[in-house]
C-alpha cells in the first residue's frame, strides 16, 4: 500500500534563519555578491523551474528522462536498493521511472529531501498511486536531510542516494569533492550513489538553455529579488535588474547573474542591513558546471566510491553514473 499520505517531516531549522544568514554573508561583505542557488526555489521559483524543464531550449531535463526511460531496469538491477533517498526531489517525475523499475523487483522505501515545501508536495502528487512504495518527505538541505534519512534507516538493507538533474554542477570543483566525500562517509559498504550530470557541449547551445527567448529563466532568476522583498523586508526594484547568463570556457561553467542597471542602495528592513550596488555590478545566483565523464569518475574515486555503471544520452550529451560505497 502506498504511504504517500504522510505529512512532511518538519524543516531542519527555519528557512528564514538560513535565508537571512546567506543574504548577510553573500551580499553584506566586500567581495563578489552571490547567493546559494537553493534560495531560487520558493513556491513560485519551483513552479518556474518546472516550466523551464519543458522549454525546447532546455535539453537537460529531457536528456535525463530519456536515460531513465531506457535504462531504469538496468540501474535498478545494479543497485538492488531497499531504500532510495533523493537529494532535491523536485516533482519526482523522472524519479518515478526508477522507482517503478525498483518496485517490479521488491517493495521499496523512498525518502525525498528538498528545501522547497511546494516541491515536496509535487513529489507527493507524482508518487501517490505507486503501490508498495513507502514515502517520507523531508524539508531540509541536502546533507542534513540525508543525515536524518539515514538515522531512520536502522538495520535496513541497501541504500541508493539519488542526485539527479545535474545538481552536482552547482558546486565548484572543491565543493563537489568535499560534498561527495561527506555522502560517502554517511554510507555503508554496498550502498550506492546515482549522479546525473550535464556534459560539456558548445557554448551557444548551452547559453540558449539559460537565456530562453520567452524569458522564463529570467523570471526564475528575478523572482529571487521578489522573494527577498517579501521574506526579508528588502526594497529591490526588479525592473532595475537584468538576468544575465554567461559561459566560462576555462572552467566549463554556465553562470547566472542579476545585473544592476544603475547605482543603488537596497535596504533589508528585517535584517538591519543595507547593500550598495554599482551600475553593472552583479549578484551571482547559480553556476552550472558541464562535466566530462573522466572528470566525474575521478571526483567520485577521490571520495572513496567505485564505478558501477554509466548510461548516456547523446542527443543532448548527459551522463547518469552509478557508484558504490
| Cross-sheet strand order for the largest sheet | 4-3-2-5-6-13-12
Largest sheet: 7 strands, mixed
Instruction: Give the SSE string.
Output: HEHHEHEHEHEHEHHEEEEEHEE
Oligomer: single chain
The proportion of residues forming helix, as a percent range, comes to 25-40%
Which CATH architecture of the largest domain? Answer: 3-Layer(aba) Sandwich
CATH homologous group name of the largest domain:
Vaccinia Virus protein VP39
Class by SSE composition: alpha/beta
Q: Indicate how many domains the architecture comprises.
A: 2
Instruction: State the distance separating the first and last CA atoms.
Output: 31 Å
Number of distinct helices: 10
Q: Residue ranges: pLDDT <50 for 5 or more in a row?
A: 1-13
Amino acid at each position: 500500500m502506498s504511504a504517500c499520505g504522510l505529512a512532511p517531516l518538519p524543516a531542519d531549522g527555519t528557512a528564514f534563519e538560513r535565508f537571512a544568514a546567506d543574504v548577510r554573508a553573500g551580499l553584506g561583505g566586500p567581495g563578489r555578491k552571490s547567493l546559494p542557488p537553493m534560495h531560487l526555489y520558493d513556491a513560485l521559483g519551483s513552479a518556474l523551474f518546472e516550466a523551464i524543464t519543458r522549454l525546447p531550449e532546455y535539453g537537460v531535463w529531457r536528456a535525463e528522462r530519456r536515460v531513465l526511460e531506457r535504462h531504469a531496469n538496468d540501474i535498478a538491477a545494479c543497485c538492488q536498493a531497499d531504500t532510495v533517498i533523493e537529494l532535491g526531489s523536485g516533482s519526482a517525475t523522472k524519479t518515478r521511472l526508477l522507482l517503478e523499475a525498483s518496485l517490479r523487483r521488491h517493495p521499496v522505501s523512498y525518502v525525498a529531501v528538498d528545501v522547497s515545501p511546494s516541491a515536496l508536495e509535487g513529489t507527493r502528487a507524482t508518487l501517490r498511486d505507486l503501490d508498495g512504495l513507502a514515502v517520507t518527505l523531508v524539508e531540509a538541505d541536502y546533507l542534513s536531510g540525508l543525515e536524518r534519512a539515514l538515522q531512520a534507516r536502522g538495520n535496513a538493507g541497501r541504500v541508493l542516494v539519488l542526485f539527479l538533474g545535474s545538481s552536482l554542477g552547482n558546486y565548484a570543483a572543491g565543493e563537489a569533492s568535499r560534498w561527495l566525500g561527506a555522502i560517502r562517509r554517511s554510507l555503508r559498504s554496498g550502498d550506492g550513489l546515482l549522479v546525473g550530470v550535464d556534459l560539456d557541449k558548445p557554448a551557444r547551445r548551452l547559453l540558449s538553455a539559460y537565456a530562453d527567448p520567452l524569458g522564463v529563466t529570467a523570471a526564475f532568476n528575478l523572482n529571487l529579488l521578489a522573494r527577498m522583498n517579501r521574506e526579508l523586508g528588502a526594497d529591490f526594484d526588479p525592473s532595475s535588474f537584468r538576468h544575465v547568463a554567461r559561459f566560462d570556457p576555462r572552467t566549463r561553467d554556465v553562470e547566472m547573474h542579476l545585473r544592476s542597471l544603475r547605482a543603488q542602495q537596497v535596504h533589508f528592513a528585517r535584517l538591519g542591513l543595507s547593500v550598495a550596488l554599482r551600475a553593472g555590478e552583479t549578484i551571482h545566483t547559480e553556476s552550472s558546471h558541464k562535466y566530462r565523464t573522466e572528470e566525474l569518475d575521478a571526483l567520485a574515486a577521490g571520495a572513496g566510491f567505485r564505478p558501477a555503471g554509466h548510461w548516456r544520452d547523446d542527443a543532448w550529451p548527459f551522463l547518469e553514473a552509478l557508484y558504490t560505497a
